[in-house]
Amino acid sequence: MVTSDENEEPRRLEGKQKAMAVCFILGLGSLVSWNSMLTIGDYYYSVFPKYHPARVLTLVYQPFAIGTLLIMSYYESRINTRLRNLAGFILFFASTFAVLILDLVTSGKGGIGPYIGICLLAACFGIADAHVEGGMVGDLCFMCPEFIQSYFAGLAASGALTSILRILTKLAFEKSHNGLRKGAILFLAISTFIEFLCIFLYAIYFTKLPIVKHYRAKAASEGSKTVSADLAAAGIQTMPNDQESQDIKEQMRLGNKQLLLENLDYAADLFLIYVLTLSIFPGFLYEDTGSHKLGAWYAIVLIAMYNVMDLISRYIPLVKCLKLESRKGLLIAVLSRFLLIPAFYFTAKYGDQGWMILLTSFLGLTNGYLTVCVLTVAPKGYKGPEQNALGNLLVLFLLTGIFAGVCLDWLWIIGKGSF
């Protein structure tokens, strides 16, 4: 079907470490803009004190992300993956740059006009996330599991990076005039640069790595049409006389409904992982953990510990003896995490800050570890087009779990007179 030589095994493996590094950076770029907006929430609260920016921006972001990904998952087999991912990274870059420009133009002043502008840009982040996260995971599902692991490590690294930067900017600008705004501008400038770097890496570098070309050529030979543009960009053309054969293979692939039914437990795993995580992080950690010796630093330390442990845990499955692959075992582990709800409740009520830091670290540890285990195990045994479709479906359930968790986070404040 393609002009590549599929018998050159050594050549196929060239560039694996480089591809993993690029996947990490692309994962970083998939969430760093949104995490930056969340991290500078204290600045937005000072500018828009009456508009509840943290909760409103999240509720704006998630429906656009889920709605866009729902449409793209349905039409996944007809979508040009290269254009999809590039469109997502370009939208991330443009939206992040626009947030920076909006702040500079308004000189950091509040008001309903700038706030609506920020909400619209948060919606753009959601649309970009659906393009990139679904497209990248679908693309990486028919490659080696280490690529998915690296990509999701990059997603976690965006949280760790913004947390570390938040601590540094708080130390550097806490006592200076307009310190919050200076920190916010620095966050947005760094995020804009990372998004530009992702555009370059995906468009030019990643697609030309020999191991990436091999996996995409293999997917094309199994009937995938979504990789054609990436193969063309790498100098590999689909042979026209094989089009009929490709159409037949595409018709023989499992449909989305059958794929979902066969992997319903994995979809439920991801949904439940993020329902629990987002019902605690970050809202509960910011508002319901009480006052302790760390004072204003308490919530910042909790968020940082979660993000750092989430990042570290995503490398644990690389050690084969520590990777959980049993479907039943994964489901039991995911369900057992719900014991963290009473643990957090009683620790916030009766425990000290050390126990809360430990619990938060464990929340991040299990979140990252189980996410990578599910997403590296689920695609095994399927053909390229089916793995791509399954990747999109699993990300859809992941994002739906995030949205449900964000909504359930409000239950912690029932009875506190906040409604």
TrEMBL record:
GO terms for cellular component: plasma membrane. It is a multi-pass membrane protein. InterPro entries: Eqnu_transpt. This is Equilibrative nucleotide transporter 3. Its main location: membrane. Keywords: Membrane, Transmembrane, Transmembrane helix, Transport. The chain crosses the membrane at residues 21-44, 56-74, 86-106, 112-130, 151-173, 185-206, 266-285, 297-317, 329-348, 354-378, 390-413. It holds the Pfam family Nucleoside_tran. It is found in: Membrane. It comes from Arachis duranensis (Wild peanut).
